[in-house]
């Protein structure tokens, strides 16, 4: 499907805020450095180095939902939690 996003400034505190924010949206972000998450028809794989860098690869999304909407939503959520696009 294919879009990978990279983020910086993802400290353990930012990751914890992200986990809490996603939980409020019904999305479980495991407390592991990598895994697969999903919700609302969107499925993504993430990898976090445990200190600074996070990558998110979109694996699946509803066909009617533009990729730009998905990536924008992810970027906004991570920015709200204290991270930044790299």
What does this structure look like?
- This protein is α+β, with helices and mostly antiparallel strands and 86 residues long.
- It has two helices and five strands; from the N terminus they run βαβββαβ.
- It has one domain (3-85): TATA-Binding Protein (2-Layer Sandwich), CATH 3.30.310.
- It has a five-stranded antiparallel β-sheet with strand order 2-3-4-1-5, with helices on one face.
- It has helices at residues 12-24, 67-81; strands spanning 3-8, 34-39, 42-48, 54-60, 84-85.
- The protein is globular.
- Helix content is 33%, strand content 33%.
- The two termini are 21 Å apart.
Break the fold down into its secondary structure elements and pairings.
Elements (H helix, E strand, L loop, with lengths): L2 E6 L3 H13 L9 E6 L2 E7 L5 E7 L6 H15 L2 E2 L1
Antiparallel strand pairs: 1-4, 1-5, 2-3, 3-4
If strands are numbered along the chain, what order do they take across the biggest sheet?
Answer: 2-3-4-1-5
Low-confidence sequence ranges: none
CATH class: Alpha Beta
Coarse morphology: globular
The radius of gyration computed from the alpha-carbon positions, rounded to a whole number of angstroms, is: 12 Å
Tally of distinct domains: 1
The fraction of residues in strands falls at: 25-35%
**What is the mean pLDDT?**
94
Report the end-to-end length measured between terminal Cα atoms.
Answer: 21 Å
Largest sheet properties: 5 strands, antiparallel
CATH architecture: 2-Layer Sandwich
- Annotated CATH topology: TATA-Binding Protein
In terms of structural class, how would the helical and strand content be classed? alpha+beta
Task: Report the helical percentage.
Answer: 25-40%
Number of strands: 5
SSE order in H/E notation? Answer: EHEEEHE
Count helical runs: 2
């Amino acid at each position: 499907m294919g879009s990978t996003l990279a983020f910086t400034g993802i400290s353990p505190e930012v990751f914890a805020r992200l986990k809490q924010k996603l939980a409020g949206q019904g999305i479980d972000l495991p407390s592991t450095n990598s895994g697969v998450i999903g919700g609302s028809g969107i499925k993504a794989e993430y990898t976090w180095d445990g200190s600074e860098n996070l990558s998110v690869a979109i694996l699946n999304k509803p066909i009617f939902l533009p990729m730009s909407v998905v990536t924008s939503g992810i970027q906004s959520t991570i920015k709200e939690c204290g991270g930044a696009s790299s």
